[in-house]
C-alpha cells in the first residue's frame, strides 16, 4: 500500500466588531488527496467469495466553507454558532477497488451475466460516481450561554443550551443500499436485506448547568449530552452502530 498524500489550500479571515462583542470567522479550503486509503471488497481466492481489503482506492477532491460567530448580547448572555458546507468527489478510482461481478461475470445492462456453468452476483465496492463516505455536506451548531450572578454568595450560575446538526452521509465507501438498481428499471443487484449505509441527518441537544463561587475555588456542573436521546447511525459494518445515548454527568470540583 502506497502513502496517502493530501495537498490542502486554505484562506480565511478573523474579525471583531463593536468593541469585541461580535466575532465572525470565515474559512475556505480546497484539498486534493492522492491514493486515498479505504476498506473495500475484492474477489476472493475461491470462486464466489469476496475479501475486504485496505488499500489505495483512488483520488478525491474536496472543497468547503466554514463560518463561526460569537456575539455578546449583554453582560450575561452570549450566543454562538457555526456552519460548515463542503462538497467532494472522486476524480479517479483504481480498477482493483471498483464494483465487480463475482466468478468473473460481466456487467451487462445493469446486471451480471455469468460465464457458462457458473453463477454471478454483483459486489458493490467503490465507483467514480459514489459519494464520499463520512462526508456530510452540511453541519453546524447554534447555542446560547447565560450567566446569572448570585448576590447571596457572590458566585455565578451558568446555563448553556446547544443544538448540533449533522447532514446525512454514507458511512461506508461502497454506498450500499437495499434493492440497488444500476440502471433505471433495471434488475435489482442487491437484496432488500442489505444494510443501508446512508445515515440520516440528525440533531443533538446538549444542556449544561453550572455554578462557580466568587473566588473560583468551588465549581459544580450538571451536563446533559444528547438530551432528547436522539438515535443516529454513525457506522455500518455487517451491522449497525449508533451514537451515544442520552448521557448525564455531574461534577464537583474544589481548588486547594
Task: Outline the structure in words.
- This protein has a nine-stranded antiparallel sheet with strand order 1-2-3-4-9-10-13-14-17, with no helix packed on it. Strands 5-8 form a two-stranded antiparallel sheet.
- The protein is mainly β and 256 residues long.
- It contains no helices and 17 strands.
- The protein has strands at 5-17, 22-43, 50-72, 77-93, 100-101, 106-108, 111-113, 122-123, 138-149, 156-166, 169-170, 198-199, 202-212, 218-225, 233-236, 240-242, 247-254.
Give a concise summary:
This protein has 256 residues and is mainly β. It contains no helices and 17 strands.
Topology at a glance:
Layout: E1 5-17, E2 22-43, E3 50-72, E4 77-93, E5 100-101, E6 106-108, E7 111-113, E8 122-123, E9 138-149, E10 156-166, E11 169-170, E12 198-199, E13 202-212, E14 218-225, E15 233-236, E16 240-242, E17 247-254
Antiparallel strand pairs: 1-2, 2-3, 3-4, 4-9, 5-8, 6-7, 9-10, 10-13, 11-12, 13-14, 14-17, 15-16
Task: Note the main attributes of this structure.
mainly beta; elongated; nine-stranded antiparallel sheet; 256 residues
Major sheet attributes: 9 strands, antiparallel
Overall shape: it is elongated
N→C terminal distance: 53 Å
Beta strand count: 17
* H-E order: EEEEEEEEEEEEEEEEE
From the helix content, strand content and strand pairing, which structural class follows? Answer: mainly beta
The whole-angstrom Rg is 25 Å
Mean pLDDT: 94
Into which percentage range does the β-strand content fall? over 45%
Identify low-pLDDT runs: none
Q: Which strand order spans the largest sheet, edge to edge or round the barrel?
A: 1-2-3-4-9-10-13-14-17
Amino acid at each position: 500500500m502506497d502513502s496517502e498524500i493530501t495537498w490542502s489550500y486554505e484562506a480565511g479571515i478573523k474579525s471583531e466588531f463593536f468593541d469585541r462583542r461580535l466575532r465572525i470567522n470565515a474559512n475556505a479550503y480546497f484539498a486534493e488527496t492522492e491514493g486515498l486509503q479505504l476498506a473495500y471488497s475484492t474477489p476472493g481466492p475461491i470462486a464466489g467469495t469476496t475479501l475486504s481489503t485496505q488499500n489505495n482506492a483512488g483520488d478525491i477532491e474536496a472543497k468547503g466553507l466554514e463560518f463561526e460567530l460569537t456575539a455578546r448580547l449583554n453582560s450575561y448572555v452570549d450566543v454562538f454558532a457555526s456552519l460548515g458546507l463542503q462538497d467532494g468527489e472522486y476524480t479517479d478510482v483504481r480498477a482493483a477497488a471498483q464494483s465487480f461481478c463475482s466468478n468473473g461475470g460481466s456487467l451487462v445492462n445493469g446486471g451480471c451475466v455469468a460465464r457458462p456453468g457458473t453463477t454471478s452476483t454483483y459486489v458493490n465496492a467503490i465507483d467514480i460516481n459514489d459519494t464520499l463516505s463520512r462526508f456530510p455536506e452540511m453541519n453546524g451548531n447554534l447555542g446560547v450561554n447565560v450567566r446569572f450572578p448570585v448576590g447571596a454568595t457572590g458566585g455565578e450560575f451558568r446555563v448553556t443550551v446547544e443544538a448540533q446538526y449533522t447532514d446525512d452521509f454514507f458511512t461506508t465507501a461502497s454506498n450500499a443500499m437495499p434493492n440497488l438498481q444500476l440502471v433505471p428499471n433495471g434488475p435489482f443487484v442487491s437484496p432488500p436485506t442489505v444494510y443501508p449505509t446512508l445515515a440520516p441527518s440528525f440533531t443533538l441537544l446538549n444542556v449544561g448547568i453550572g455554578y462557580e463561587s466568587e473566588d473560583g475555588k468551588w465549581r459544580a456542573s450538571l451536563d446533559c449530552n444528547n438530551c432528547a436521546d436522539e438515535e443516529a447511525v454513525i457506522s455500518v459494518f455487517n451491522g449497525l452502530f449508533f451514537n451515544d445515548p442520552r448521557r448525564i454527568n455531574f461534577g464537583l470540583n474544589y481548588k486547594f
